[in-house]
Amino acid sequence: MAEWNAYYQNEDEDEEQEEGEQSGGDYKVTGRDSLVFLVDASKEMFIKGEDGEPSNFDMTMQVVRSVYTSKIISSHRDLVALVFYGTEQSKNPRNSFKYVYVYHDLDEPGAKRVQEVDALRGEKGARLAAETMGSGETSLGDALWCCANLYSDIKLRLSHKRLMIFTCRDEPHRGDSAKDRQARTKASDLKETGVIIDLMHLMKPGGFDVAPFFRDIVSQPEDESELGLHLEPCDKLEDLQKRVRAKEQKKRAMARLNLCLGEGINVAVGIYATAVTARKPAAIRLYRETNEPVRSKTRTFHMQTGSLLLPSEIKKAQTYGKKQIVMERDEVDSIKKFQDPGLYLIGFKPMEKLKTHHHIRPAVFLYPEEGEVKGSACLFSALLMKCSERNVFALCRCVSRRNYPPRFVALVPQREEVDEGKVQFTPPGFNVIYLPYADDLRTLDPPQCPSASQIQVDKMKEIVSKLRFKYRSEAFENPVIQQHYRNLEALALDMMAPEDTEDLIMPKVDQINHRLGPLAEEFKDLVYPAGYNPESKSVAKRKTAIVGGVAEKKPKAEVPEDELRAHVQNGTLGKLTVPVLKEACKQFGVRTTGTKKQELIDALTTRLTDTV
Amino acid sequence: MKRWRAFSALVLCMDVGFSMSNSAPGEEPPFELAKKVIQKFVQRQVFAENKDELALVLFGTDSTKNPLDRDGQYQNITVHRHLMIPDFELLEEIENQVHPESQQADCILLIGIEALSNNTFNFTFQGIYSYLCILPYFCVLSLPFPAEDDEEGGGDSDRRGPGHPGTGKGLSREQKESLDLVKHVMLSLDEEDGLDQVYTFRDAIEQLCMFKRIERRPMAWPCQLTIGSCLSIRIVGYKAVTEERLKKMWVTVDAQSNQKEDVKRETVYCLDDDNETEVKKDDTIQGFRYGSDIVPFSKVDQDQMKYKHDGKCFAVLGFTKQNLVRRHQFMGSQVVKMFAPKDDEHAGVALSALIRALDELQMVAIVRYAYDRRSNPQVGAAFPCVKQDYECLMYVQLPFMEDLRQFTFPSLENNKKLSPSDTQLSAVDSLIDSMMLVQKDDDDADQKDIFKVHHIPNPAFQRHFQCLHHRAVNPGTPLPPMEPWLKAALERPDVISERCQAPLEEIKRKFPLIEVEKKKKLKTSAQIFGKDAEEPDAKKAKGDEEEDYNLADIAEGSVTSVGSVDPARDFRTLIKLKSLPFGEVCQQLTHRIEQLLSNKNTHYYMKSITCIQAFREQSVKVNKHSLSSFWEKLMMTWEFLKDEVEGSTVSKNEANQVT
Fold first, then answer.
1. How many CB atoms lie within 10 A of CB B255?
2. ipTM value for the complex
3. If contacts are CB pairs under 8 Å, which of residues 472-531 in chain A contact chain B?
4. Angle, nearest 10°, between helix axes B602-622 and B582-598?
5. How many angstroms separate the CA atoms of A340 and A257, rounded?
6. CA-to-CA distance for B562 and B568, rounded, in angstroms?
7. Do residues A125 and A59 touch, judged by C-beta distance below 8 A?
8. Is the pLDDT of residue B128 over 80?
C-alpha cells in the first residue's frame, strides 16, 4: 500500500507539471477583439412563429446571451456591444441618431449584462422591449454610423472588429433610395476601418431576399468562391447559434511558419489551435479592504547582502551524480535551440503507419497564408489533394517557436466538408499530429490472459449494439468549468444558490440498465464463474489493505539512522519510498517545502552529510 | 508479498592486464577503447538517475584487493568500487586512476567472476534482480571485429548493457575458443534476460553515445470498467504513451558563489496606484473574473461549492463507430492502456470479450474517466487493441464543448484562382512517389518503415545531457556543438534526399512562390512589451491629442491611404509619415473631398470642410504651389455645387472662412 501511495503522489505531480507546461494554445495578443450585435427591433421581429415557436427577437436574444456567457468563459477580454435599430426611443452616446438604441456599450461582458439580456427574453422580454425601446422608423445608415462611433470611442487597440446584423426584413427602408444609399456608404466606411459586417438573416414569410439591399452592406467573403451569404435564412435557434458561433471567434494563427519542401521551396502556413483544453481561470489576488486587484511583483535578491540581483548575477544549475553543473542563463536557452522555427518535410508515409496510440498532445491545424508567400495556397492545395487521394500523410520536423526543440509531426490531409445548408463543418487543411519520441513510449509488461470465446464475444456485441449512439465532440460540457462559472455567476448576481448544472459525462445508469435488460446477466453467466464478484473482491481487498496499511505503515516508516546514513553515503536514498523519506525528514528535523521525492532526498542528503 | 524492485545491480569488469595494451601499430590499444566504453556507459548511468547500482572490478591488476583473496585464489583482482549509485567521482576515478597494468588475467579468473560477484555483492542485495555486464578482456587483440549479431539499432537496444566483442573472421582458433568460453559464462550468468547483445568496442561506443532514454516505472491504476450498474470488469491501467519531461529542473544560483541558498525570490503584492503601495499577503483574498466583474471567492467557499464527484471511475457512457472519433480531436497528453489484473483470469476473459467485440464491430467505448477524487473527470474513448501477444483497451481523452473552436476557412478546391493544374498535380504526385518513407520488402508483404520517429531519442534530452556532461567534465569551456549522429538522425534520410532531387526541381518550376513584400511588419509595442503595454499606449494617445493624430494608429502602421471615415486625420498622418509622395496624398484627399461633396448631407459637408482645413494647414507647411493649384480647382467645384449647398447649414460665410 505504501508503494501505491507513493505512486499516487508521483502521478499527481506529473499532472501538475503537465498542466503547468502545457500552454500550447496561447496567442500573442496584440489587441482586443470586438463584436457588435446590431439587432432589428421592428415589429416584424416580435412576431411569434407557428406552434408557439419563439419570435425572431427572442431567438436572437438567446444567441446573444450564449455568446456573452461563452465570451466570459473563453475570452473575457473581448469587447461586446448590443445595439437595436428601428426603435421608437433612442439612446446613444451623443443622442445624435434617432431610432437607434445602444443597449450595451462596447465593453467586456459581465454578470450584469447577462442579466440584462436575460430580461429581454421570452414573453416578458418582448413586453420590456416594447416599454423601453418600442418600434419605430428604421435608418440602418444611422445605426451603422452609431456603431462606427462606438468603435472609434474605444481607446484600446482593437485587433478584430465584427458587426452582426440580425434582421428579418430584406428591405428595411421600404424602397427609400436615399436611406438605402446612406446605409451603403456608411457600411463601406465601416468596412474600410476593418470592420467585418455579417448578416444573420432570419426567417420571414415570403422568404428573405439578400440581393436587393443587403448584398452591398455585408463584407465580401474572404475569397470569391465562398458563399459568403448563406442564401437560406435561419429559422431554427440551433442553426442561428451555429452560424453565430462560427463567425464569433476570430481565428488567429498561433504561429506563421514556412513549410519547407526542399531548398528554396517554402510554403507559408498558419498554425491554428482548433481544440485547446479550457481550464478554470487562475484566481486573482484582491486587497481585503477594498476588493481591488493587487499586482504581484517577484524580486530576486541576495540572501546575505539583501541587494537585488541582476539577471547577469544569476546562473542556473543542476546536480547530477553528486556534482553541481552550472550554466549561464543564455546557455540554458541555447541548449534548446536546434533550428529556426519552421516545418521541414522529411517524406510521406501511408496512413496506416500513423498509430492511434501515438498521441502526446492535441493536434493543431494548418492552413496556407497566401498573404505571406504568394502561390502558397496553390501548392498547399495540390499537396492536400494528392495526400488525401493517395491516403498518405506528410512527415515533418517541426520547430514551432524560437528556442523550441524539434518535434516530428504527421500532416494528415483533411478535405473540406459542408452540410446541406452549404455551411462548412470541416475546413480544408492539414491536421498536425505530434508524434512521440522513443522516450515518450513506456515499456509495459502486459499480463497473459486467456482470450474470450466467440460466444462470449457475440454476447458482448449484443450489449454494444444496445448502447450505440452517435458521438459528437461538442455534446459534452465540462462539468467542472460549468460549475465554477455557475458559482461565480451566483455570487456576482447575488443569487441564493447557483443554478444546477447537469453533469453530461455521468453515465445514465438507469437508462443503460433498462436497455441492457437481461443481457448483462447473460454475459456475466458466460464469463464469470458462480460466486465471482468483480466489485466485492477488489473492495474487500482494498479495505483490508487500508486497515493493514495504516497499521503496517508506522513501524515500517522508520528507518534506523545508520541505515539512512549508509543510504546517503551510497547515494541510494532513492530506494526508499516517499512516506519513509518524509518520516526520516521529520526524524532529523529537516524542514522541506516540497513533497517531490527528489526534494526530500536532496534535503536529507544535505542534512546528513553536514552532520557527518 | 514479494517486492519487485525495478532497479538492478550491475558489475562492470574490466581487464587492465597487459594484453589490453597490445595493439597493432596505428590502432588504438584495446585498453583505451575499453576505457571509453566504460566511461560512456557510466556517464549514461549518471544522467539516467535510475536506481541502478554499479560496481567496478578490475582484473589483471598488479595488486589484489577483493574479499575472496585467500590461499592464492582470486589474485590480481581489484574491486575498485562496490555497488553503489554511480556519480561523477567514479567517472573521474576511471579517468585518472585506471591505468593499464602488467599482470595477465587468465581464463580461470574469468570463470571465477560469477562466484566473485555472487559472493561479493549478492548477499547485500538479496532478492534484487542482479544483472551482470562483462566488458571484454583478453580476446580483444585484433580490433575491430565485425560484429556477429548486428542488431538493428534503436530504442530497444539501450535496455541492455554492452557485451563484449563478437566473433568474426580473422580470429585465431585460440581466440575463438576463449570467446565461446566468455559467451558461455555470460549466458549462464544471466538466465532471465540473456546477454543477447554482443558489440565490438566501436559499436559499443556508438551505441553509448546516446544518453539513456528517460524511463519511468509503469504504475498500475486498478479500477473497474462499468457498463450500467450491473456489469463491471476489473481492469488495471498503465500510462503507455506520454510526453516525457526531464526529471530535474534548473535551479537558480548566485553567479559568484554558485549557491542556491544565496538567492532568494520573493513575491510582494502592491496596489495598482501611483505609489505602488505594498500590501501584506495576509491582507489579500482570492477572487475570480466573471467577464468584467471580479468576484471575491475565498478558498473555503470555493472548495465547498466546487464540482465534486465519486472519485476513480471508468464508466461506459455508450458505444460509437470508430470513425466518428476523429484522430485530430484527441485531447490530453497521454494514452492509457487498460489490461485485466494479472491474477484475475475471469476479468481477462470478460475484458477480452469487450475488446474483441469492439474490434469486430469497428467501434469504441465512450467513457467517463476520473483518475481519483481530487482530479477532474474527463470524457474519452477506449479503443480496442488486439495484438498478437496481448489485448487491451487504449484510452484517449476527447474534447469538451468548451475546448473546441469552430473555425471556418475559405474553401481551397472551389477556388479557381488557387486550384492547381493537372501538370502541377502530377508534379506533386511524383514528389510523393520519390519521398515515400516505406519500402516494400521482397520476402515480406509488409512495408518497412525507414524513418521511425518513435525510435529516435528525444533530441532535446540528448543535447541537454551532452551539454551538462561537457560542462561537468570541462568546466570553463564553451558548450560543444551538437553530436553529428544526433544531427543526422533529425534529417531526411540520404536515400530520400537523393531520390527527391529531380521532383523537387520540378515542383520549383511548376509552382511559383513569391514572398510578399511586407509593408512593415506589424510589430506593435504590445508585442514587444507584452499585453500590459496596451493601457499606457491608450493613455499616450490621449495625451497627444493636440497633435491630432493617434500614436496607436501610427504604430499599427495601418494608414496607407486617405480613407473615407476620417480623411483629414489620414491625410495628416500620411504627411507625417512621409510614406507616400506629397502630391499623391493630396490627390487622394481631393478625390475624397469630391466624393464627400457629392453626398447631399450636412454631415458630409462638415466632413469635407475639415478635410479642406487639414489640407490648407499641411500645404502651408509643406508646399505652397500645390495649394494654389488645388485651390483653383476647388473653388470651381465649390461654385458648381453652390446651388445645392443652398439650404444646408453650411453658409457661404463659413465656406469663405475656410479660405
1. 17
2. 0.76
3. 472-485, 487-489, 491-492, 498, 501, 503, 505-509, 512-513, 516, 520-521, 523-524, 526-529
4. 160
5. 10
6. 8
7. no
8. no
The model's pLDDT over B259-276, given as tens digits with 9 standing for 90+, comes to 888 888 888 888 877 777
Residues B188-245 have pLDDT tens digits of: 443 333 333 445 555 555 556 667 666 677 789 999 999 999 899 999 999 999 998 8
User: What type of residue sits at position A423?
Assistant: V
Which member of B155, B504, B541 has the closest CB to residue A438?
B155
Q: Which residues of A touch B596 (CB under 8 A)?
A: none
**B251 or A26, which is more confident:** B251
A118 vs chain B: nearest CA distance in angstroms? Answer: 16
- pLDDT tens for B308-351 read 888 899 999 999 999 999 999 999 999 999 999 988 889 999 99
Grid coordinates belonging to B618: 499641411
Contacts of B232 in chain A (CB under 8 A): 534-535
Grid cell listed for A429: 487543411
Q: Are A517 and A462 contacting, i.e. CB atoms less than 8 angstroms apart?
A: no
A544, pLDDT greater than 70: no
Enzyme catalytic residues of A: 28
Q: What is the pLDDT of residues A137-162, one digit of tens each?
A: 888 888 999 998 888 888 777 878 88
- B11: how many CB neighbours lie within 10 A of its CB? 25
Nearest to B283 among A288, A344, A373 (CB): A288
The DSSP symbol for B410 reads -
Q: Give the Cα separation of B364 and B345 in Å (integer).
A: 23
Q: Which of A290-299, B111-120, B128-137, B512-521 has the lowest mean pLDDT?
A: B128-137
Chain B residues in contact with A497 by the CB 8 A cut-off are none
Q: Which three cell numbers stand for residue B121?
A: 555483492
Predicted local distance difference test score (pLDDT) of residue A558: 66
List of long-range contacts for A562-566, beta carbons under 8 Å, 24+ apart: A564/A604, A564/A608, A565/A608, A565/A612
Residues of A in contact with B340 (CB under 8 A): 447, 449
Q: Which residue is it, cell 456608404?
A: A185
Helix (H) / strand (E) element for A584: namely: helix A578-587
Distance CA B219, CA B237 (A): 8
Prediction pTM value: 0.72
**Could you say which residues from 174 to 213 on chain A have a Cβ atom under 8 Å away from some Cβ of chain B?**
182, 185, 188-190, 192-194
Residue with cell 595488486: B63
